[in-house]
Amino acid sequence: MKKIAVLGITGSIGISTIEVVRKHPNDFKIVLASANSNYSKLFEFATEFNIPELVITNSAFKQKITDIPKGSNLSFGENELQEKIVSIDSDIILNAISGSAGLRSSITAITKGTDLALANKESLIMAGHKIMNMLKDSNSNLIPVDSEHSAILQAIGDSSADEIRSIIITASGGPFRELPLNEFENITLEDTLKHPTWDMGAKITIDSATMMNKGLEVIEAHWLFQKSFKDIKAVIHPQSIVHSFVEFIDGSILAQLSFPTMQIPILYALTHPYHIKSTIPKTNILDLPDLNFAELSIERYPLYEIAINAGIEGGILPTVLNASNEAAIDLFLDKKISFNFINKIVEKQINSFHNFKNPSIEEIIKVNKDVFIQTTKNYKKLI
Ligand code: NDP
Ligand code: MG
Fold it and tell me: Same structural domain for residues 164 and 58?
C-alpha cells in the first residue's frame, strides 16, 4: 500500500487521481490532500477515503468553515501546506496544483527527499535548473504525470540520453486547428474552453488553444530528459492517441499509445517503474480512428515559438513567460481581453524584461509575483 499526498485534489488531475485510487483501493492510501478553496469537494473526498490531513491554501476560508469531516485534521494556508508536506509520512507526493502556485510544493517535496509525481509543469518551467540540480542531492525521484512526458519516459525505458536522437511531442492542435486565421479575432472564451480531445482545468485548456502548453511541454521535456531544444519538436496529432515519440540514434522510433485519459499516466507515475494491472478501460487497436500527423504552424500558434525561445534563453525569462501568460489568461477568463491579445501581452512582457541567469528560487518567486501584478495592472498598455 503506497501512501500518497495529493495536492490540488479538487482539480481535473486531482479528480482523475481519485478515479485511479477508487480502482485501486488496496494499492494506494491518500494521507494528505489539498485544495485552494473548493472545501466541499475536498471534504467529500476526505469522507470517502478517510484522509487524515487536509489543507485549504486560501486562508480566507478559515472563518467560513465550521464542519470538518470526522477523523480529518484541517489546516489553512500556503505555509501550512509546506509544513504538512514535510511532516506527513508519505511515499509519493502528487503535485496537481495549477500554475506557478505549485512551485513551492515541488521544492519542498524534493528537499524532503520524497518522490514527486509532477503534473504541475510550471515548476519545471520556472525552476528547471534548480530542480534538476536539487534532485542530484536528494532521495526524491521526479516522475512526470503529463501524458506526453509519461509516454517519453516509458519509451526511453533504460536507454541512456546518448542513445536518443530526438523527442517528438504530439499536440492535438486544440479547438482552433482548422479555424481560418482571419477569424481568430472573433474567438470567444466559450469556444476556447471546448477542447476537442481532453477534459482539463481552465488554464491548461486555454494554453492548449494557444499552444503555449506545447511550448511549456518542450521546456519540461528539455529538463526531464536532458535533451537540447534542437532535439525536441512538436507535431500536430489531432486524435491524441499517440502521446509522444522517442527517436533513437539507430533510426528506431518508439511511441506510447492509448485513448486520451489522464488515468493511465497518473497510475504509471504512482507505480513507476512498474506497470500494474488495472481496470482503466482498454484501448482496442481495432477501434482506433485513422492517425494523422502534421507540421505545427507558427503563424497559427505564435506562443509556441515565443515559449521555446524563452526556454532557450533560460534564466528568469521562462518565469516571465509563465507569469505574463497566467495574468493574460486571467484577463481573458474575466473577458477583459480577447484571445488574440494573450500572445501579444506575453511577447511584450518578454521583450521588455532584462534577463538574468541562474535565478534563485526566491528571485523566481518574486519576479513571478511582480510580473503577474504588473501585467494585470498595465494590460491596456500592452494590447
Ligand atoms: P485545475 O484548475 O482543474 O485544478 C487545480 C487544482 O489546484 C485545484 O485543486 C485547485 O483548488 C488548486 N489550486 C488552484 N490555485 C491554487 C493555489 N493558488 N494554491 C494552491 N492550490 C491551488 O487544474 P488541472 O488539474 O487541469 O491542472 C493541474 C496541473 O496539472 C497544471 O499544472 C496543469 O498544467 C497540469 N496538467 C493537467 C492536465 C489535465 O489533464 N488537466 C494534463 C497535464 C498536466 P480549488 O479547486 O480549490 O480551486
Ligand atoms: Mg500534456
Answer: no
Mean pLDDT along residues 363-371: 98
CA 46 to centroid of ligand 2, rounded, Å? 28
Report the run of H or E that residue 181 belongs to, with start and end: none
Distant-in-sequence, close-in-space partners of 5: CB < 8 Å, separation ≥ 6:
30, 31, 32, 33, 84, 85, 88, 90, 92, 93, 94
- Which residues surround the ion ligand 2 when the cut-off is CB under 5 Å? 146-148
Nearest ligand 1 atom to the CA of 38 is 47
Ligand 1 atom having least distance to the Cα of 216: 34
Q: Which of 371, 310, 302 is nearest to 339 (CA)?
A: 302
Helix (H, G, I), strand (E, B) or coil at 226: coil
Question: Domain range for residue 163?
Answer: 150-261+287-382
Does the beta carbon of 37 sit less than 6 angstroms from any atom of ligand 1? yes
pLDDT for 101-122, tens place per residue?
999 999 999 999 999 999 999 9
In this structure, the residue with its CA closest to atom 20 of ligand 1 is 36
Q: How many CB atoms within 10 Å of residue 67?
A: 7
The structural domain count of the chain equals 2
Q: Is residue 272 part of a domain?
A: no
**Which domain CATH number covers 20?**
3.40.50.720
Sheet strands (E) in the chain: 2-7, 28-35, 53-56, 73-76, 92-95, 115-118, 142-144, 164-171, 232-236, 242-248, 253-257, 294-295
Prior bond of 52 cis (ω within 30°) = no
What are the counts of helices (DSSP H) followed by strands (DSSP E) for the chain?
14, 12
Check whether residue 309 and residue 248 sit in a common domain. Answer: yes
Say what the pLDDT of residue 198 is: 83
Distance, CA of 52 to chain centre: 26
Distance 97 CA to ligand 1 centre (A): 4
92-95 and 73-76 beta bridge pairing: unpaired
Q: Could you tell me the three cell numbers for 251?
A: 533510426
Rg (CA), the chain: 20
Both 61 and 160 in a single domain?
A: no
Q: Which three-class secondary structure state does DSSP give residue 259?
A: coil
Q: Are residues 122 and 165 in the same domain?
A: no
DSSP 357: S
- The band of 196, judged by pLDDT with boundaries at 50, 70 and 90, is confident
